[in-house]
Amino acid sequence: MDALTGLSDAEAVRLLADHGRNELPEPRRPSLPRRAARLLADPLSILLLLAGLVTLVVLGEVPEGAAILAILVVNVVIGVSQEVRADQAVRALRTLTAPMAKVRRGGVVRRIPAGEVVPGDVVEVAAGDRVPADARVVEASSVAIAAVPESMAAAVTTALALGSQRMARLGVIVRRLSAIQALGATTVIASEKTGTLTTGRLTVADHVEIAGADLWRAAVRCNDARDGLGDAVDVALLAASADHGIRPDDPRLATRPFDAGTRSMAVVTEGPVLTVKGAPEVVLARCVPCGGHRSAG
């Protein structure tokens, strides 16, 4: 198997049949009798059951006892139906939010469900992507830290614990410390008036181009999106460049992937030509005056 072309479709189908899907088995859902028994084990349900039996058997008040038992049955039926509907909603959400993976098959990058990844697949992972399976790194541009300081774990745990205490004083109870880290990394939550999250698809609406600057070719050079897959900004820039007749064709000599610390990405192509993409204040700070204008590669 060539790392540049990946598996063929026939090989992928055969391996999927041999090894099964790349996912953990779902836990067995409780049966209706077990759900009903769990609801009946609730202290309030036990109290109603005892009250109904005493009223019906000991006191001999049939209408009142039957009413109490009927209320108990109605509560159990409503509770079981709500649990079943909640399970169905969770399964539907899991289907909508199923993890995806980018694999190279037959020389073409495809986006497939992570459950269909098979042994031998060449998986492409960019910054922020979930790693869909155990894998071996074949090629990387993502320089890794050689060693993590020993005090890192203690420092992170202490910071997260302090954050949870601060939120507790504000009336917010956090069950897991990892939720503090996720909340701290959140910068923007976009939603409609109905509370529905957006799909994250972007489109270039307008642009400013300096005379003599090859804007769209620069947008293609410094871009990690391919075949409509990748970061939403990169996908939007690639689509806008294609509308202007520019497609990726310049081989890269060196790459510095996008880094949240520097808020920029840099690519060196033949020439050599250095192309930088990033936040305006970061890119403009690296520009030099040229003929009364500021220009960036």
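Above is the first protein from milestone M3; the second protein from the same milestone is given next.
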Amino acid sequence: STEWRMEREAHYKLHKDQFYKNPLLTTYLKEADYLSLQTGKWWLGSWKDAQFDAGMTHGIPEEGGRHGDKGLEIGRSGLETIFDFISDAQEKTAPFFVWYAPFLPHTPHNPPDSLLQKYLSKTSSEPIARYWAMCDWFDQTCGALLQHLEEKDILEETLIIYTSDNGWIQDSTRVNRYAERSKRSPYEDGIRTPLMLSWQGVIQPKIDSVHAVSNVDIMPTILSQLQLEEQPDLPGLNLMDARQLDHRQTVFVEDFAHDMADPVKPAASLQNRIAIDYPYKLIWPFSPDGQHPEAELYDLSNDPGETNNLVSNKANISDRLKSELDAWWTPSQ
């Protein structure tokens, strides 16, 4: 209804206004004379709201969905928008930043038939075959993007950061559905995702299974490479600085309900706060009424499936991590 739409838009505007009070990566990129492009998923209005120089998402819900509207064509329908942007930046001899956030392997799991047939022969579950095929499709688009950078002779000048918004374990019986304890859960299958950096000739390939990192580290890592007079005060750290990584002890996570209860009060939607000081992981449920349900503590080195709650046996560790969580963020009512 018109009334519902107007109410939603009012709340949505409050949410966007809150977000755009924060330091924006695009602002600092402009300061360093970078051109920036938005493609794919974008939940916060249009690319213009976020101060990109170009983009695909127009941000009008009535004209194309909540995830990113026109931007969601990237990847599934080719990469020409990105290729054209890179050519334009090169003509202007300008450095550039590309936000490539395709709707892959996101639902709907409708891969090309050639990929689907490839994986139907590898599993008896069609839902799993469809998901694997979607991952393959996404991988092919990343390969095409890297090949383009190589053909343009700029691969050695480009820092590439790969991340994911949540974990997804495919349900073996239902298409487009995730299994228990994956997406939207505080357990490892829901929050442990890959974060990869690649810079040919600069970053030596390796697997780091020692340091805990977070998506809050992405912006400080990018800004560390810009010649800025003043760096913003951010909660993350530079992933290319080994000393910073060595000095970090605990990584914090917040887990929210799918639907936002209040656009300006995050605690209204908060479900869990999480602290990981490997090998220990504390999951501390949160209730808006101020009552804390019992926490869960796991030793991930011996119990990666998180089946043995040690909160009673390791009270000193759980109490310390609770104190660290409160020091990091004590939710207000």
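Note on the second protein: The radius of gyration is 21 Å.
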